[in-house]
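Worked example 2:
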Amino acid sequence: MTRKKPSAGQPDQPAKPATLSPEPAEETTVSAPGPAKGFPIVGIGASAGGLAAFEAFFSTLPAEAGNEMAFVLVQHLSPDHKSLLSDLLRRHTRMQIHEVEDGMQVQPGRAYIIPPNRDMALIGGGLQLLEPSSPRGQRLPIDFFFRSLAQDQHERAICIVLSGTGSDGTLGMRAIKGEGGMVMVQEPDSTEYDGMPRNAIATGLVDYVLPPDEMAAQLIAYVAHAFGKGERLPIALFPKAEDGLKKLCVLLRDRTGHDFSQYKENTLVRRIERRMALHQIERPGDYLRFVQQKPGELDALFRDLLIGVTNFFRDPEAFAALEQRIIPRLFAVRPSGAPIRVWVCGCSTGEEAYSIAILLQEYLETLRQAFKVQVFATDIDPLAIERARSGIYPASIAADISPERLARFFVQDANGGSYRIQKTIRDLLVFSEQDLVKDPPFSRLDLISCRNLLIYMNGDLQKRLIPLFHYALNPGGSLFLGTSETIGEFSSLFSALDRKWKLYRRQVETPGTAYPSLGHYAPPPLQGSAPSPRPMSANDRLNPRELTEQTLLEHYAQAGVLINGRGDILYIHGRTGQYLEPAAGNAGMNILGMAREGLRRDLSSALHRVVTLKTPVRCPGLRVRTNGCHISADLVLRPLTAGPDKAPPADLYLVILETRADEPERPSPDIPEAEAHSDSDRRIAALELELKSKEEYLQSTLEEMETSNEELKSTNEEMQSVNEELQSTNEELETSKEELQSVNEELATVNAELQTKLTDLSRANNDMNNLMAGTGVASLFVDLQLRITRFTPAATQIINLIPTDVGRPVGHIVSNLEGYDRLIEDLRTVLDNLSSLETEVRTKQGAWYLMRIRPYRTLENVIEGAVITFMEITERKRMDQALQRASALNQQYLDTVQTIMVALNPEGRIAMINRRGCELLGYREEEDLRGRNWFQTCLPQPEGMERVYPVFQRLMEGDLETGEYVENPVLCRDGSQRLIAWHNAPLLDGEGVAIGTLSSGQDVTDFRRVREEADDLARFPAENPNPVLRLYGNGQLFYANPASEALLRDWDSAVGGPAPEPLRAAAIEASASGGIGTLELEQGDTCYVFSVVPVPSRGYVNFYGMDISQYRRRKA
C-alpha cells in the first residue's frame, strides 16, 4: 500500500507507460498480451461526507485529462429524495455530467451519477439500473457496482473509496484488485467519516491513500503509464546478465517463504507491470533495484500475486453438478459413522469451502445415518485464512446465495451489514495455511476441490500436482477443477464424470503408478544444484509378476504377496491359504483383513515399520492358527526393488511367508544350549520371542499414538485460536454500531446538498419574481381552496387586485371581464380533471385576452392549485375577424361554381371542399369531409393509394407539370362511383414551398357513358361474324354489318332502301307490339334465325341473325 505519492526509487520524469518496454540490447524480449482496447472506467464510491470529497476531486481534475477515462459516481442516497449531486458538481468541472438512465453507454470524458433507490451494474460498457434487492439500511450499492466493474473492465477498472461509514466498497474493491485494476482510498484524516476508507485500507490491497485534492494528479499519472500507449510493444523482461525475473522470484521466496518460479510467466509479468505502473517505473531493471532498496514492495507484490476472485457457489451450474453427481456417491459407499474427508485447495477467503460444506450438510440431513464430515481448506495467504476462519462476510453475499440457504446457514448481524456462518457449518471446516508447491498434501480424501488455481501455474507444476491429487484421494475419490482447467495427460489416473464442469473420478492405480515423493515438497534447488532424478519411462517399469518373481527367485522360494503401503494386495505368488483367508463382509483384497489368527498383529506392526523405515523387517517363529491347529512360520517384509538398470517402484513391499519344519524350534541365542533341549525350555524360548514381538508391536502402537497426540494437540491449538477469534469477534461487534449510522449518513448527504441548494433556490426565487414582473404577462396563482397566493402587476388591469388580496378567495374579487362569469366553475373543472382550459375573454374596455387555466404542479408532480394567465390578443382578434369575413366571401365564390373544388394539405387530408363537391360525393356539409384523408375516403381502392396518391406526391415535389389533365373515379358516400376530370395545381407559400394542392374537377361520367355506347355501337356489329341489321319502324334499312352483305345481295337490297320483305314485315310488327320475337329465313341452301329486338326509345328495330344450316341438316 502506498500512502500519499510514491516515494524515492521511482524515475524523476516518468515519460512512458509502465509496460515493461524494451531496454538496451542486454535484455531478453518475449511477447505478452497488451491490454484490451478501450479506456479506463473509474468507479468512485462515497457516503456521508462524500459531497466535499467529490467537489475537491473534480475541482483538481483537468478537463482534457478527464477525456482519457470515464467516471461513475455511486453514493448512499435517500430513496425518497431526488439527488442534487449532478447539479452541484457541474460548478466544479467542465466535464459532462449525467444522471444515469437504464442502458446508458459509458463514454470517456463524462461522469455518470447513480439515481436514488437503484442499484447499478456495468455490463458490456453500459450502465444497467436494477431495483434494490435489500431493504433500506442494508444495501451495499458501491460493492454491487465495483464487482460489476471488475467483471466488465478487468485491468481497466479503477476504484476510489471516499468518505463514509461502514464497509461498503471493500468487497468490490477486492474484486477489482483481483482483476488487475487499481485501488485508491481517501486519507482517513481528510474525511468527515472514516469508516469506509479505514475498512478498505485494512484489507492491505490499497494502492494509494491520498486526500481528494491530490487524487486527480496521481490518477492521471497512473493512467498515462498503464494505458498511455494504447497497444503495448513486445515485453523485455529483465537483463540477461542478472536473469532478473528469476532473481525477483528468489527475492520473493527469501522474503515470504513461497516460490513463484513455477507460476505462469504471463501472470507474473502482468502483476509486475501493474506494480511498475503504480510507481511510475518504466524499466524492469529499475524496478528490480527498487524492490531491493525497499523490501516492503516485495510484500505488496506478494499480495498482488495472491489476489483471487471468489464468491459463494461460483459457477452455480458446476456446483449443481457437484451436488447431484458427486456428493451422493461420497456417502453411498461408506458405512454409517465413517469419515468423509474433503480438501479445498486455494480456498482464499473461504467462500468455496463453505459452499461445499453447505452442500454436504444439506445431503447429510436427508440421511438417517451419522457420518463424520471434515473439510480441510488451505491457502497460501495467511490473511485470507484468518478471514475464512472468522466466517464473517458482507451483506452483498446475498446476491450469490439463495434466500433459503441464507436463512438456514447464516446469521445476520443486528444492523444487517454482514453475515456470519452458522456454527453447524463452521464446525465442519478446518482452515490452515499451506503451500501446494512445498508442503505435503492431506491423504485418505474422498473429494478434492482445486478450482481456478492450476491456471496460474506452469505445465511442469501442473504435472506434479495432478498425480499428487491422485495419491491423496481414496480409491474412487473425486476431483473438482475449475471450468478452464483439465487433468491434461493424466487420463490414466482420472476418468471424467462431467467434462463440462470438470468433475473427475480417481482411477484404481496400476502397477508402476509413480506418486510424488513427499520429500520433494521443499523449496526447489537453485541453479547449480544436483538434477532431480529422471521419471521412469514405460520401458523402465516392471509388472507385478516380474517384480515379485524376480525378488523371490533372488532371495526365497516360498509363498509371497506383493502389497502397497496401505496393505492392498497387488499380486500373490505361491500357496498362501495357510496364512490368508477372505474376511467376512464386504469383499476386499487387503492383507491385514485376510491374515489368519496369530499373523494379523505382527503383520500390522511389521508393515508399519517397513513403510516408515524402508528396511526389511523379520518376524520369526509366529504361531498361526489354520484349519484348527497351529503352525510355526517366519514372516519377512522388505521394500521392493528392481534391477540395477531399473528405477525403483514407489511404495511397494513384498511379504514372504515361510513355514518352519517339524524339527524342534531353534532356541533363542540368549538361552544356554544345554537348557534348550527340554520341552519347557523350548516353550520358554517361544514365549520370550512372542513377548519380544508384542513389545515391538506395543512400541509401534505407542509411536502411532504419539503421532495422533501431536495431531490432537494441533487441533486443540486451532480450537484455542477459534476461541480467541470468537473473543475478537465480540470486540468487533462493538464497532458494528457504525453501521447503525447508515440512515444518518444518508441524511447528512441530503443535508449537505440541501444547504447548497437552498442558496440556489433563493437566487432562483428572486430571478423568477423579476422575470414575472418584466414579462408583462398577467398571471394569477391560486391554491386548492381557490385562495390567491400570488399575482403579477399586469393582472391588476384585468382583475381588481391589491397586495392585501393575497390569501383571499378569488371569487371575492371583482373582475373587469365582460360576459364571463364562469371563473370559479372553470377552476374547479381544471382541478378535478387535471387538464388545461383555454378561452377568449373580453374586458369592459374592449381588450381581448386568451385566458389559460392550468394545474399548478410541483417538481414532485403534486397538484397544489392552479395558474391563470391572460395573454392579450386584441390585435389578433381583429385580424381573425377580418380573416373570417374574407373566408366567408371566398366560400360563397366557391359554392357558386358548378365544378368540384378540393384543397389538400401535405398529408393528403381535405383542407377545403366546395358545396358542389359535397353534393356530388353525397355529403351535406364541408365539415363532414374536412380533415379526412382524400385518397382513403373519396377514392376507390386500391386505385386511390396505388395510382392517384403517387400523382399527388409528384405534384407536391414539383415533378408534375401544373394544370396537367387527369381522370380518375371518385367514391360517393352511397358506394357509387363518378368519373371526374381533374386539373391540379400546387399551393405555394411565400418562399415557393408547396403547402398543399388545389384541384378542380368536372363530372364526365355521363359523357363517358355516351361515348362508350357509341364506340360499342360502332365496334360490336362490325366484329360479329353473323348478320346484324337495323331497320326503322317503317321497314327502311339503315345499317347492316359486313356479315350481312351476302344476304342483302341475294335479296337485291341495300342500306338506305327498303329492307327485304320478310325483314320489313317483322320490323313493322315489332315496332307496333314492342315485343321481342324471332324470324327464320331461307336463302338458297342457307337458313338463318333472327332475334328481333325493338328499341322503342330510339324508333328502330335490331335484327341479330345466326346461320343454322348445319344444325338443320344434322337434324334431318
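The mean pLDDT is 79. Residues 878-1003 form a domain with the Beta-Lactamase fold (CATH 3.30.450.20).
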